[in-house]
Amino acid sequence: MFHQKCGDHVRLSNRNRTATRTASEFNFGLVFSNEPLLDDQLFQIRIDKKIDSWIGSLEIGITTCDPHTLSFPSSATDLRNGTWVLSGKSILKDGRTLLEAYPLNLDRITEGELIGVLKTRAGELEFFFNGVSQGIAADNIPEKVFAVINVYGKVNQVTVVPHKNAMECIGGDLNDGITQCNSANLVPSLETELTVAPGRRGSANGSGDVPQPQERLRFHERTGSLVKLSCNGRSAERLRPLDEFNNAVVMSKKPLVSDTLFEIRIDRLVEKWSGSIEVGVTTHDPATVDFPATMTNMRSGTIMMSGCGILTNGKGTNREYGEFNLDRLTVGDRIGMMRKSSGDLHYFINGLDQGVAASRVPQVVWAVVDLYGMTVKVTIVDRDEREEQNLITRRNTVLRENIQNSINEISEDEVDDSLVFHPNCGSHAAVINNGRTAHRPNALDDFNNAVVLTNRPLKINEVFEVRIDKMVTKWAGSIEIGVTSHSPTDLEYPSTMTNVRSGTWIMTGNGVMHNGTSVIDDYGQNLDKLQAGDRVGVVIRRGGSLHFLVNGEDQGEAGTGLPPKLHAVIDLYGQATQATIVSHCPSCSPVSPTVPRPLPGMLGSSCSLDGTQALHQQLSSEIHFHSVHGRNARLINGGRTASRPRAMVDFNDAVVITNRPLRRGEMFSVIIEKIVDRWSGSIEAGVTAIKPDDLELPGTMTDLDHDTWMLSGFAVMKDGVMVTHGYPLDLDKTKVGNVIGLRRHDDTSLHFYLDGVDQGEACRGLPPSVYPVIDLYGQCAQVSIVSNAESLAETEDSVISSICAPQVEHAEAESSRILDQSESTVLPTQLYLHKWHEVFGKAIKVDETGRATRSADIPSGGLLFSSMPLVDSELFEICLIGYTRHWAGSLVFGVTSYVPSSAETSLPVSVAAIRDVTRYIQGGDLMQNDEILKSRYCQSLDWLRPGNRLGVKRWHDSSLHFYIDGIDLGSAGYNLPKKLYVVVELFGSTIGIAIVSKGEAGRGDAPLALPDIESAYDRATEEDAEESKRNEDLDKSIEDGELLSEIHDLEVNHICFPSDLNFPFYLKEINK
């Protein structure tokens, strides 16, 4: 409990366990522990209440000052004579800075979180956050010290929580017989040499039960220069893997927790280089470290496993460690690390403990992975004993002498023949999205050297078609497409394909060139005039006739007598910066059923002929598996059968997804046709809101960590995390002939079915548009889709009723949007106005048209959030519609991973108060979580007036871009979380905004052309009467629906600038 003597502005209650500061004051809030601290016993408090109107936050520490005799100062930092205090993220001793950047930042704590302080028997000081030690803050602490708390600034009330043993708070597993923390073995200095233990072996049975972390582990957003993060920071990939072999170091976002396993899975390898992945731990903070080309170059605080040896600070200390060589691991193998409470570091390969690699490892260490040489991509995974057993089985199988024969017996039909981009490409290009997308990452700096070829030659009459995803207006010229006899591995990639002098036919602009010479000057549509969303293609007809296609329309013969075995090629030149292959897989194309007969009374009723055609269009899209699938899966039988051909060798990487989402009331069912008993686990089934073209294919379905609901065994999982277990249906016990079904009910619940029998509700809260997903995992090697007559009848009734109903708007429009969004673009996609989330600030009024307003009498109305996360390459844009003069500042605009919930009692009071990852513009600065990332990122938002627009878009390469009046302000960062919601704070002079953008999945919005900029500072100084009239006119235009038209129909309102602003300097700044 607290000492009864305390600061002048503090009131003690709850038997001196709770300290509350007077709300009208911010200082003189010191409280002390009632008794001196005992060794290795945690003194811990809970944050009960915060008042965000103040600046600063809680301070905590220890002091030799006795509260009985002390004259209390105004704050803890004023204490002297042996006082150590954590203030913000700095450690102070007697008021002077001892350590500037401690891992815990008290300025960011929130209500309900636990903060603790502990003095070890070795005389070391540690601070704790939610029961987890943040590392040694100081040493040589005197024997008799009191805990001191400064209930300061934003923190208004704290409560002492019951004492806990320090090891319990760390969450350690004491199976090795350790009963107390041996802090003397910890290394307080980051530069101290690390002692490596003798190379003894650990148990082959693993390490027993591993406590699960409270939060899923992720990689830190700061990485090596060639790393791309995906899957919300759980996957890391080295860019240009065939050209570069290093500069791909990644580290964990948070320090490792003692006795908790950090495990990664190898997802992709290349054969070009020698050497492979290196894994270890380091004391260097990823937020500040200068990333080396390879981690073996680090000379302090680093332990790495490389090959079969252990290196400490770059020097070999154990050359024969464990039973595995990292250079010989294959795709799917797992590598784990665990720092035990004793300070020993253990590695785990496929779940097998390799023994002690090093001892006396510092308590605060980050996991580090070097995607070196052959290793291209890894993913952080949760421990899975089922997977570990399968990996051991696979290894034993591969070691058998006859395995090569079984691999060679795979039929040609089972070989993956998908047409994708080859990873070899021009120096300014990169292939992403599992080979389906090519882009020019630095599109504003480079305009050429972006040639990309297909992975195999085109077949006769095979259409190769790409959709232009992104464009920039900076350059002249655009995409070029054609065919070449050069292979992607032999071609010396030119700056542009028109420079190739042999075996090449290219369409450029509206002409055709052969081997660099123009052969047709006026051919078809002009490619330089295409926009984002347009499609271009090429096909070689029987007899060697070459044809080009634009938006599906054949432009005529462009050449004759072409030889066989020609690779398709595109050149992402000039304005074209990203393109995605539009699949025309013949085995996966929809099978059109017989045209349904019109129902009695259909003609002449409210169901017109157009309605009949719409009904036919919706019903004619038969469900099948999409051509986007795991690398070990194969599709046959018109895409209705999915199999894992190498079922005796592979057990995962066989996720398949349907070509379209489920319709209302539709059941999706598959029959199990093949079982292989050698593996653990079996089929996994569920649904996802992720569209196939946006899906980053995981090794298993449990790796999908957003917008996914599934059944694995008898465990129901959401976003890869188990929500309940003991479901009546156990998929691991299914047999050949069983029919597994699933259906989304109208109450948003998901039900699974076994042989047509409903097994009950598994979960609820599903969105209306979800795609069925099947994972051919473990024992399940083949399934086929089965028709369900009852489901089809219900679907037809629901479609007919939706077409005939007169009110097909808003919610019903979402349902009717569920059309075939499969491999080829056939039907136009309907646009829907973006919406605000149902949870918003209490002082804000939101109407159904997307307008949000607040009273001009208050300086802030609170926060607004988009109803859905950002969709890649889809612009979310708002327009200012209300303004007042008598408040300083303006709105704050950005994105956040924070998801508002109706169950919350209150929202954060400001964007800066959100603790989740939040990136935003405030004034003219680019901010993240109340810290400036880039000052003068753009013109100040304070100059915006009604009619100006603000937008944000997440590109396919995971970069974030902000827009003002359609002008791209440049990259605002990379490797942000996958699910980002738009967030707006209605603050200062901005009293009204309206959404003006509409959503269209899978298509990119090209930014509007750069408008003429006027130095209209006068517009910001108009008379009040004129301003009031303009606001009234804008309000009326909103009510009439004029302002909420499509973005490209809006009249561009010029940005206001001060009259003395240097315009060229401004353009230079916003394009940085």
From TrEMBL:
Organism: Rhynocoris fuscipes
Matches recorded under InterPro entries: B30.2/SPRY_sf, ConA-like_dom_sf, Neuralized, NHR_dom
SUPFAM superfamilies tied to this protein: Concanavalin A-like lectins/glucanases (SSF49899)
SMART domains, per the entry: NEUZ
GO MF annotation list: ubiquitin protein ligase activity
Protein name: NHR domain-containing protein
Residue ranges annotated for the NHR domain, each copy included: 1-163, 216-383, 418-584, 622-788, 833-998
